[in-house]
Amino acid sequence: MRPAETRYARSGDVHIAYQVTGDGPFDLVYVPPFVSHVELQWQVPSGVALIERLSSFARLIRFDKRGTGMSDRVEGVPTLETRMDDVRAVMDSAGSEKAAVLGASEGGPMSALFAATYPDRCWALILFGTIASERPAPDYPWGDSDEEFRAELDWAEDWGSIQHAASLAEALAPTSSEDEKAALATMIRQSASPGAAVALTRMNRESDVRGILGAIRVPTLVLNRIGDHPHIVGGSQYLAQHIPPAEHIEFPGVEHAISAGNTVAVLDEIERFLRASWDTHLHEESEPERVLSTVLFTDIVGSTAKAAELGDRGWRELLSEHHTVIRRELARGRGRELDTAGDGFFASFDGPARAIRCASRISEEVKQLGIDIRAGLHTGECEVIDGKVGGIAVHIGARVASQAGPGEVLVSSTVKDLVAGAGIEFSDRGAVELKGVPGEWRLFAVERA
User: Is the domain of 120 the same as that of 173?
Assistant: First the structure.
């Protein structure tokens, strides 16, 4: 197979490099690991073999994440939400309305979030050698300790040297030939700068998609090798246990790279799974009934007293101005108004960072009207009913809002965990019980958005 032409998709102001190979009956988007390079991958024999095999049964769409490979370099840390925008931009540019998504290693968490958020664009999900979070928790012991993370940051600071790239290639593909590892090291070294490597390392540390795994409803295949790092093995098992439709297969071997070791067996299972899922999709395709959304609730603090102070006419005029502000900011933040009752608004977003920024702007803007609002946000699986959303996630969002003080934007821990790299600062408001919702919920106040 000859190397494909590199094309560019426009995602906001950023150009995302991608290539398309194969002409199979369905589209497959490959979300790469930590770094990639769509052109230099053609210089790595195992990379070529991976492209050729996936392209033999699918129309394969590969891309470089922003800040890496052939894509534009960017300032700051790319968020999972921004990366999802990039995937949709690449799919649109490649003429792909709906695709299966294969997330390898670091590409896994974003792929899982994409499948839950955009079931209308994703009909199957494959996760290879990946995890839900890099932070340990009482029910999730596979993340790195703070000491291990500091060592990883020190490792990332050395990015770019020949020795560093060689050691990384050795860790990813220890059983490959020396020539193979040398080619892999060259691609790795030229795929990102030291600053980009550090930024990605920091984002990965803060990202946590455990809270949304139950919202994934597309057929899912989780794969890993049993000799990989214990965090990868345990994390993969966790993914399979917490994604409702997941099938889990473990392979022998110690290689972390999908293109190393027993690749043929791995790709055989991927092809089997995708062909079967595609056949099912063709016969059962329907509009998604459940989708992952970030819901926002707002209301005016002290509205009764304010209405009495202004009188009916003054109150109506204030409400009109209030509604204008909120609708303007919803349009700016790609939010969707779902309901308005009196002085309260209910809206949904396909990205938590956009929702937080929108809520924060609303809170600041309405102060100029002489009022304060309280706002609450939660990200969770919602039922889609006649174009609107409902379900327990909506109730949680409303209860979070009820805990907010004047001018305060409160979010659930699920929201906070999904906006790593967005530059949003929070203060911990502790664990609370939400009326009518089981368990305790940790809430965070937005300090800077």
Answer: yes
Assess whether 273 and 296 both reside in one domain.
no
Using CA atoms, how far apart are residues 287 and 351, in angstroms rounded to an integer? Answer: 20
Letter for the amino acid at 350? Answer: D
Place of tokens 């040398």: 182
Q: Locate 200 and state its tokens.
A: 């990605």
Give the residue ranges of DSSP H helices in 381-431. Answer: 392-402, 413-417
Together in a domain, 149 and 263: yes
**Model pLDDT for residues 356-403, shown as the tens digit of each residue:** 999 999 999 999 999 999 999 999 999 887 777 889 999 999 999 999
147 is a domain residue: yes
What is the number of structural domains in the chain? 2
Do residues 248 and 237 lie in contact, with contact meaning Cβ atoms separated by under 8 Å? yes
Final residue belonging to a domain, choices 235, 262, 284:
284
Residues 275 and 303 in one domain: no
Amino acid at 346: F
Give the model confidence (pLDDT) of 48-67 as tens digits: 999 999 999 999 999 999 99
List of residues 6+ apart from 390 with CB closer than 8 A: 382, 383
Q: Which of 249, 266, 284 is the last residue of a domain?
A: 284
The percent helix, strand, coil of the chain (3-state, each to 5) is 45, 25, 30
Please report whether residue 1 resides in a domain. Answer: no
Q: C-alpha distances in angstroms, 311 versus 26, 192, 316, 345?
A: 61, 62, 9, 22
User: Which residues, in sequence order, are CB contacts of 44 under 8 Å at separation 6+?
Assistant: 180, 183, 184, 187, 259
